[in-house]
TrEMBL record:
Gene3D superfamilies in the record: 3.10.450.50
Source organism of this protein record: Streptomyces cyaneochromogenes
Pfam families the record matches: SnoaL_2
Domain SnoaL-like as annotated: residue spans: 17-112
InterPro entries xref list: NTF2-like_dom_sf (IPR032710), SnoaL-like (IPR037401)
The name this protein goes by in its record: Nuclear transport factor 2 family protein
């Protein structure tokens, strides 16, 4: 009798989506009912921005990846049904953004994500 395994998270798709600035590729990594919480200078930890489902997440990804900036996946670690990754970004005017994500996986897809961003001020 074999053992069942869960699909693994596709880090190469994550890298291609982030560095290729293709929101459609990134969106393919999310479960239909995914939840994304964003904490940054505008949405503090006590009142994070919460997006529910692929449609709301798609709107955010389309906005972010349409901007005149570069994105780089700095690293990704996966352990069981959890993963974490770092992304560095730079706008054309030199402003830098660093984001850290902690994600929960279900069947190889992102089901929950907490994204924390820090910007140059």
């Amino acid at each position: 009798m074999g053992t069942a395994t869960s699909p693994s998270f596709d880090t190469e798709t994550l890298r291609r989506g982030i560095e290729g600035q293709t929101p459609e590729t990134l969106l393919s990594l999310y479960a239909d009912d995914a939840e994304l919480r964003v904490v940054n200078r505008n949405t503090q930890p006590s009142h994070p921005k919460v997006l529910h489902g692929r449609n709301e997440i798609a709107d955010m990804l389309l906005d972010v990846y349409s901007r005149d900036m570069t994105h780089k996946l700095e690293g990704c670690v996966i352990q069981g049904d959890r993963a974490a990754y770092s992304e560095s970004c730079e706008y054309a005017d030199g402003v830098r953004v660093l984001s850290e994500s902690m994600i929960t996986l279900r069947d190889g897809k992102i089901s929950r994500q907490i994204l924390i961003e820090a910007w140059d001020e």
